[in-house]
User: Fold this.
Amino acid sequence: MHQLRHSWATMAMMQGVHVRVVQERLGHSTVAITLGIYTHVGPTMQREAAQAVAAELFA
Assistant:
């Protein structure tokens, strides 16, 4: 069940849910807990970040 919380947090962030909303839904006292422990960066997030920066650089 605990792993489901991590998965939900990561998927919510990938879908653009604001970190404060994720924090509140999980009942964390700080955003640092949510970001540092519960969310994980996956390959898709890395690729999208690189594409976003590249698009801005070469626009």
